[in-house]
């Protein structure tokens, strides 16, 4: 609550708050439920799992019940699992081949753009996209290219 109070002047420009769990933290549904009960409401919230053990139906059910978005992740050695658990979607591109160090091709970005467009049929109101493949400024170029592709798809 203190955090949200301090950032309240940004409210009109605030996107989603992302909680990223460490790769060492294995699945613990009770811990997740306890955590989610203690986070404040009133802002879009997203959780990013870095350990594959969390990617089970029980966890997605908990997120849906709590209206917390599952962070869809594109990164090496991690499933690109598409799960919608709230009215928002949040996608993080960390680099598909090399973590933080690989660019996405136009074909890959087109695939993602079509997926993002399809989210509206699944009652998703907002989609946040974050590129974290920052080596050689890939993130900037990929974000601009995805924006162009999405503009073309939504015409």
From TrEMBL:
Q: Name one Pfam family in it.
A: DUF72
InterPro entries linked to this entry: DUF72 (IPR002763), UPF0759_sf (IPR036520)
Q: Which residues form the signal peptide?
A: none
Top-level lineage group: Bacteria
Q: Which PANTHER family match?
A: DUF72 DOMAIN-CONTAINING PROTEIN, UNCHARACTERIZED PROTEIN YECE
Identification of the protein by name: DUF72 domain-containing protein
């Amino acid at each position: 609550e203190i955090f949200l109070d301090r950032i309240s002047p940004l409210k009109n420009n605030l996107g989603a708050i992302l909680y990223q769990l460490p790769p060492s933290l294995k699945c613990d549904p009770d811990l997740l439920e306890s955590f989610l009960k203690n986070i404040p409401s009133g802002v879009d919230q997203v959780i990013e799992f870095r350990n594959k053990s969390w990617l089970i139906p029980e966890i997605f059910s908990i997120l849906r019940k709590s209206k917390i978005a599952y962070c869809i992740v594109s990164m090496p050695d991690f499933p690109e699992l598409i799960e919608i658990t709230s009215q928002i979607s949040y996608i993080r591109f960390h680099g598909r081949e090399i973590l933080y160090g690989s660019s996405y091709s136009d074909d890959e970005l087109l695939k993602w753009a079509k997926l993002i467009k399809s989210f509206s049929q699944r009652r998703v109101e907002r989609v946040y996209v974050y590129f974290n493949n920052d080596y050689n400024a890939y993130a900037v170029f990929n974000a601009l290219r995805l924006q162009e592709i999405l503009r073309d798809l939504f015409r």
